[in-house]
Write a structure and sequence with these properties.
Layout lengths: L9 H32 L8 E4 H13 L6 E2 L7 E4 L20 E2 L1
Parallel strand pairs: 2-4
Antiparallel strand pairs: 1-3
């Protein structure tokens, strides 16, 4: 970016900075995931399994993520299933992905 700074206007520079910051965070996340996998492979992590109420947890996530629009999201878990998770570990994963649809309700 330094060698292009005299050829770009401020909005283009800001767009590049934002993109670089996002990709840096993404790369840091990937490195953390690789380190987590390495720790698991080396048996350096103690897994403490416990039951998690999926529907309740998803509702909490929706409330935090969707804010004012949380009422537009319907959460339904078949048979009120629970997941077995390790909530004490730094290793986390999510089977769901975030999707935003403008003006439409979402269903998880």
């Amino acid at each position: 970016m330094n060698h292009l700074s005299d050829k770009l206007d401020e909005s283009q520079k800001q767009e590049l900075r934002t993109g670089l910051e996002q990709q840096t965070r993404r790369m840091a996340g990937l490195v953390e995931q690789l380190l987590d996998l390495s720790r698991l492979d080396a048996d350096a992590v103690v897994v403490r399994r416990q039951s998690l109420d999926l529907e309740m947890h998803l509702r909490e996530l929706v409330t935090v993520a969707a804010g004012e629009r949380a009422s537009e999201v319907e959460v339904e878990v078949r048979d009120h299933e629970n997941a077995i998770v390790d909530r004490t570990s730094s290793i986390t994963s999510s089977p769901t992905s975030s999707r935003t649809r403008s003006g439409t309700a979402a269903r998880l």
